[in-house]
Design goal:
Blueprint: H1 2-19, E1 22-25, E2 31-36, E3 56-59, E4 65-70, E5 75-80, E6 84-85, E7 92-104, E8 107-108, E9 112-117, E10 122-127, E11 134-141, E12 146-153, E13 156-163, E14 176-181, E15 194-197, H2 212-251, H3 253-262, H4 274-285, E16 329-332, E17 337-339, E18 343-348, E19 355-356, E20 368-373, E21 376-381, E22 388-390, E23 393-394, E24 399-400, E25 406-409, E26 412-417
Parallel strand pairs: 1-6, 7-14, 18-19
Antiparallel strand pairs: 1-3, 2-4, 4-5, 5-7, 7-8, 7-11, 9-10, 9-12, 12-13, 13-15, 16-17, 16-26, 18-20, 20-21, 21-24, 22-23, 22-25, 25-26
Helix pairs in contact: 2-3, 3-4
Length: about 425
């Protein structure tokens, strides 16, 4: 009886110890804390968490690590479990969540794979139609995360890589990064992206979504079968042509020989076939029509002045006339256009701006500015979240625009027209 009571008491104590939370002592602010197994397994915060606003709180759950979220700025700290966990501002080295939005021609892409490289790990996920071109990564290290989107373009495996800034102090606690894929018709890249096409794409990072290998193998097998079927059909067509020619030659070899001689083939004549000799002589005697003499084309300038292409990597300001008329326009890829007025024109999603795109969530409230002075247009990024790009180059300083320049702001692509 005494032995049973001791065992019951020890078991109860173990249950209480297991269910007890870890004490958390946070800096001033609004926080949430919970236990996790590892950084890579961190997802959205569990439902029902109690906010820690007084500096003292409890982290519940299971796992050897404590995840502490600063609700005010979206930064996250992950600390090894102890009796009392007391994080400092230096411990918040992750963004709790980062979303990526992938579009082509201003529409969400149906199928693609997205790989995140953040300096410490690689993570690959698959985008299917149910995700509507969007995915959210959790516990992303602050700095410059790199996203690579792999997709199929014009029957070839292609990829676009883009690097974003993820600072500790930012406007959006949970930012959304937009990646605009090249149009299949225009074949133009958006942003600071670089497109590479390869029949043998590089191996994926260490972590892949379960089942992605089987899907890739199935796709490769389907393409191989398709190529084999095309090859067999080609052989069948060639064989049919050869057999048809042989059948016609066997039926009337003289007619075939005459036709080949008329086409210029060196078919020897039968000495006993007078009709064939007559046809051959007629073919030789028939004069060939001579082409009419061509009049010479005289050029005013035999050595035209070379045209120097603009350097897309230059972001320095240039003064002078950049070739615009008195009504330069900014034309969006969907056909909308705006006349660029004299002075400053700010672009963003804030209502009332000269160029306002209220429903475009990938733009900052004030994304960029175009300043017009006569026929000179100067472009400037206004410290936007997703950055601004001109002709595929990120804009870090004032840049003079030229007619035909391509501008990408978030997922929106414009063209500057004179």
């Amino acid at each position: 009886m005494i032995k049973s009571a001791i065992i019951f008491t020890l078991a109860a104590a173990a249950v209480c110890a297991f269910g007890a939370g870890i004490e958390v002592d946070t800096p001033p602010g609004n926080y949430q804390a919970w236990l996790v197994e590892s950084v890579i397994k961190i997802g959205p915060p569990p439902k029902g968490l109690v906010s820690i606003t007084s500096g003292k709180g409890v982290a519940d759950g299971t796992g050897p690590l404590v995840a502490i979220l600063n609700v005010d700025n979206g930064n996250l700290a992950v600390i090894t479990k102890a009796n009392v966990v007391k994080p400092t501002p230096k411990d918040f080295i992750y963004a709790e969540s980062v979303s990526v939005s992938i579009q082509r021609d201003s529409k969400p892409i149906d199928t693609a794979s997205v790989t995140l490289k953040d300096g410490t790990r690689g993570q690959t996920i698959l985008i299917d139609p149910s995700r509507k071109g969007r995915y959210t990564f959790y516990a992303v290290p602050l700095g410059k995360p790199e996203f690579t989107v792999s997709f199929v373009s014009s029957g070839k495996d292609s990829s676009v890589t883009q690097v974003f800034d993820l600072p500790k102090v930012r406007t959006d606690a949970s930012p959304t990064f937009s990646i605009a894929l090249p149009s299949q018709l225009l074949n133009a890249t958006g942003g600071a992206s670089t497109e590479t096409e390869s029949q043998n794409p590089a191996s994926p990072p260490n972590q892949t979504t379960p089942g992605s290998g089987n899907k890739n193998q199935s796709s490769l097998f389907s393409r191989s079968v398709g190529k084999l079927v095309q090859l067999l059909l080609g052989f069948a067509v060639v064989g049919a042509l050869i057999y048809g020619g042989y059948w016609i030659f066997k039926k009337d070899p003289k007619a075939v020989a005459t036709r080949l001689r008329a086409m210029g083939a060196p078919i020897p004549l039968d000495p006993d076939d007078q009709q064939a000799q007559f046809d051959a002589a007629s073919a030789v005697a028939a004069p060939m029509p001579q082409p009419a003499p061509q009049s010479p084309i005289l050029l005013d300038d035999s050595a035209p002045t070379p045209i120097v292409a603009p350097n897309p990597s230059s972001n320095t300001s240039i003064s002078g006339n950049s070739g615009f008329s008195d009504r330069p326009r900014l034309v969006r890829s969907n056909g909308e256009d705006w006349i660029i007025q004299e002075g400053s024109s700010i672009i963003g999603r804030e209502p009332g701006l000269p160029i306002s795109l209220v429903d475009e969530s990938t733009l900052s409230r004030k994304q960029a500015e175009i300043h017009r002075q006569g026929n000179v247009l100067t472009f400037r990024d206004l410290n936007s979240t997703n950055g601004s790009y001109v002709n595929g180059r990120k804009v870090d300083s004032d840049l003079v625009l030229n007619p035909g320049d391509s501008i990408q702001l978030g997922a929106v692509i414009f063209k500057v027209e004179a």
